[in-house]
Design a protein that fits this description.
Oligomer: single chain
Largest sheet: 6 strands, mixed
Order of helices and strands: EEEEEEEEEEEHEEHEEEEEEEEE
Distance between the termini: 20 Å
Number of strands: 22
Radius of gyration: 28 Å
Strand order of the largest sheet: 3-4-1-22-19-20
Length: 286
């Protein structure tokens, strides 16, 4: 019985191929291939709106196609803050999280305007119910997460790193996160971004998660003419299990040519394949 074990798909390859004879069976460990996979999830907000102080402090702007951020010279209706909430339920892990807003400034000549992102402590607001008076007493004075400079009247994408907050929320079991967008300094210019009501270029939360690394050091040993024991090294800490497959072809064709023997539990490092036929060549992958 000839047994071949292979592992993985990917970019970097080991150049070593080893052969050894054990109990009259030939083992060929083909070059191991490794890869780090990235899973990217792009979320649109489930709610977004801007609020305004002064005479508009109790007004709701939920249906607006714009999200505004401005600090005025006085507290007389010139201040505007934006809020966005994202559903985190679909995320499995968070290794990076980036808020992307599409917009520009308007109201005047060239001027760079800093825009900051914060955590909004009130995470129960609704798009059609949010107002300045509802949010500001709770959400003021939170820690700044990131800053961008809006530097053009030509619309474009602006990005904010919110990894720490989103990862902490997911780790704590929270199913959503609310963000606040402000221009912290006085300016004549008014940064304006597309809301989720816009026809295109809506706000995004782009989350990247590292997929589990492929296992390494896959090896096979024949216990008898009808049993092969497989072993490998678990190279990751975030897998949910390992899929063990056998084929009579090194290409592992779809359908009956490839058999999934088992899906093990997380942390497994071995599997025994029994009921094999003598004088056959088997290929394995995990």
């Amino acid at each position: 019985m000839n047994i071949r074990t292979i592992l993985g798909i990917g970019r970097s390859r080991s150049a070593r191929t080893r052969r050894r004879n054990i109990k009259q069976n030939i083992f060929e460990l083909q070059p191991l291939e490794k890869r780090v996979l990235l899973s990217t999830t792009t979320l649109n907000p489930i709610a977004d709106a801007f609020v305004q102080d002064g005479g508009s402090a109790n007004a709701n702007n939920g249906p607006s196609v714009d999200l505004l951020a401005k600090t005025g010279a006085t507290n007389s209706g010139a201040n505007r803050h934006t809020y966005l909430r994202f559903d985190l339920a679909a995320l499995s892990a968070v290794d990076s999280a980036t808020l992307r807003l599409y917009g520009s400034y308007y109201d005047g000549a060239q001027e760079n305007v800093n825009v900051n992102v914060y955590e909004a402590r009130n995470n129960t607001w609704t798009e059609m119910g949010i107002t300045w008076n509802l949010m500001e007493p709770i959400s003021a004075k939170t820690a700044e997460l990131d800053e961008e400079t809006v530097s053009s009247s030509v619309p474009g994408w602006y990005t904010f790193n919110v990894t720490g907050l989103v990862a902490a929320k997911k780790a704590a079991g929270d199913t959503s996160v609310s963000l606040e967008v402000r221009a912290p300094n006085w300016s004549n210019r008014l940064p304006r971004f597309n809301s989720r009501e816009a026809t295109s270029n809506k706000p995004e939360l782009v989350v990247v998660a590292n997929e589990p690394a492929v296992p390494t050091n896959l090896a096979a040993s024949a216990v008898s003419s009808s049993q092969v024991n497989l072993s490998w090294t678990d190279a990751s800490s975030n897998e949910t299990g390992f899929k063990v497959q056998r084929s009579t072809s090194s290409s592992f064709p779809a359908g009956s040519g490839t058999v999934t023997l088992a899906t093990t539990a997380a942390g497994a490092t071995s599997y025994s394949d029994t009921g094999l036929s003598p004088a056959m060549t088997y290929h394995y992958r995990v």
